[in-house]
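Exercise 7.
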Amino acid sequence: MKKRLISLLLAFSMMLTFLPAGAVPAFAEENTIDPEKGVLLKSGDTINDKFIEEHNGATTYQMRDNYASGVTISASEKVTINITGNIDYNGILFTVSDSGNVMVENNKNYTVKGGARVVSLVQGTITVDGGTYYGSGTETFLNFRHNQGVMWLNDINVIASRDNAVNNQGGEVHIKGGTYTSNSSPVIYNQTWDRDAGAAELVGIMTLTDVTVESTSSGTGTGVGNSGNLTITGGKVTAPGPALNTYPKGETTVESGDFSSTGDCAVRVYEKLYLKGGTFTAPNGSAIQSRDDSAHTEISGGTIKDSKVGVEVVKGSVDLKKTTFQGNNIDIYLQEDQVITIESSFKNAATVDCADPKDGRQLTTSTAGTDYYQKKLNLTSANAGYLVGYKKTEDGKEYRCLSKKVGVTINGLEGAIKAEDPAEFTVTLTHAGSTGTGILTFGDKNGEIEYKDENDKYVPMPNDGLPIDLASDKNDYVFHITPKNAGEQTLTAAVVRDDVELGTAEEDYTVAGRVHTTVTIEGLDDAVIKEGESKGFTVKVTPNDDAKLGEAVIDFGDKNSEIEYKDEESGEYKPMQKDGLKINLENGEPEHEFRITPKETGKQTLTAAVKKDEKELAKDEKDFVVSEMPILTLKDGVITSVTVPGKNGADPEDITEIVKKNANEDGSFNVPEGATVSVAFDKDAFADSGLKFGHWDITGLDDPNAYQDKESFAFVMPAKGVTLKAMTQDASIEDDEPDIVGPIVIGTTVVVGGAVLGYQAYSLGAEFAGKLMALPYFPSNRSALAMMLWEDAGKPMPESELLYPDVGQEERDMDLQHAARWAMENDLVPDLNDEGTAPEEMKFYPDNTVSKIDVLKAWQKAQELKQNA
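Solution. The predicted structure, written as tokens, is:
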């Protein structure tokens, strides 16, 4: 009996030796309860409704330390599992099945190690908050292939070593924050799962919000893979292979985020991809790669930068609406026969390269509309020898294409070219491989250029340029240029097709100034010709650079009939030909003699023009006066102006200088009858003499009294001679009236001390007369005189309502306006306006001085008006 007992004990001891670690404590393991952290789960627990009931309805649990087996959650109630310490288990730690709903809280960021996987969601819902999770087996977090499971991963760190960090096989996974790494591919995988025949496929739904994903694979590992429905907002994804791989059946939307790859592409597209934002970088490959016929990529935002290629179209379609290309070697690369759609919303610049370059190779899809925006796209070709061209089709569509560059060379513009002389040059075009018709144009100089046509004849360039058959083997074209202006100039030749410059060249050249023909009329400068008489003159023609033009004519226009030319052979004057006098410009600088016999009086202009085939080369004009000249004799006065009526109602013409220049030897002047002559006392001549103007002695004018007392005046020259002689007086005498007192005071000469009041006693007599007449004071100018008289008269209103333009017209000035107008209307102050001045243009001259005798006269007349009122 003892032997048998010993044997049994030995066997039991050996059995314990070979049990797995942690198995022995299980024999005595029980679920303990912490009031704050909940029930401590033990290996192999299944949290179902019965389990909850057995633990007094507890739904809060905790886990820590090592586990020999994982736990299963299938309760109908939501349970919470608090991670209260590091956990190590080489298997599936959490299995959620049926309608299980579990919240895993790891807010202390404990480490959880799983073997096959940490979480296996078969059906139900699991939320994991916080913590770091290691997976050394298959998917660290697996949402098994079903159509009800929902997984929420918030701010956790997942490190997977053999498979996906997260794999969603047709359920729903929402990941927010946290870091996910794996050396397998992809790190995060969202799938559409093909179920058994006859069952609908399961479309995985996944959202990534501010998630950091890193593939540590040494090969071409993928960061995020999608064949379901995936939305990414924010975060950062890096991988040696694609940072984002959209597999067939997938639909991916990127709102924002940073995606980079050290491999051949950052984003690979097999299905649908909508890029609304984000940053995409692939230094060794393509940032965005459309890979399959079913691929469709719509780019409406974000930045594609620092990549070998920005967007590569291998197969499929790419719709570029809006993005920023920055720092890429090539922005857009098109594989053979591929095109890209670029919409009008794209406003940035882009370089385009393609695998099969040729002239006319289409780059963008054809579009139709009214704005024709594609022409405005800022695209540059990266294919050597090509640029991005433009094509508008006959049916109204447009697209961008490759256009073979055309080499343009200008030869033959060496040295200086004479303005208006033709110079020959050639343009050589290199256009092998080109197609279609281009236009060779010289821009704004088209009008100066002729081209040599197929008949070796120079003909004018078409305004819009010369058509060039780019498919032909003709390369050299010959032209004439006839510059219009002198100076340093640049000729630009450009070949244009469909509004795109295929090639340009510039050549600087110098244009020497052209000296044209000059013509000069001599001997007629401001001449005065008596009506009916002839006046000789010469015309000098200097051909200069126009000498080679040969025959020309001198033409005097409508005065040809009044002119005779001197025949060189006979020396006789002969009538001018109707069409002008023929001359030869090659003869140098001859002087041609003429004489003119004017038909009309007044100021006239003679125009001599040198013409070649109706083209005017040069002209000269000289003014002269024709009249039956009355003589104006002027003594101690000066002429200030002479005008004659304009022809056919035109404004009067000033001939002052002509009259003065043609003065007679005795100092008199020949003035045309009817001319308006303005004269003035020669103050300068008497500046230091102590004398001043007294009055004029006038003969020849019908009413000399009208001008005698005016220091300056204007008159119309009559048909007879006129003599004007200015008389002077002592400058100390204030007025030129010797009998100033008598007529004013008593109507007779005033006798003071038995003698007549004369010039020397003028001032004393005026003061005396003023006192006798009760004069308030002696005003100094016309405005003061008018105001004194008006106020004394009781401020009567004038008859006219017109205002003087040289008197203020504000309200404060109205008294002076009324006084001035009333004084003028009653002849109390003299009218200084020229005869015939319109009433509304008449001036008052308010600041003109008045003499004491003027004041006394005006006062006496004003008193008489009061008495007779």
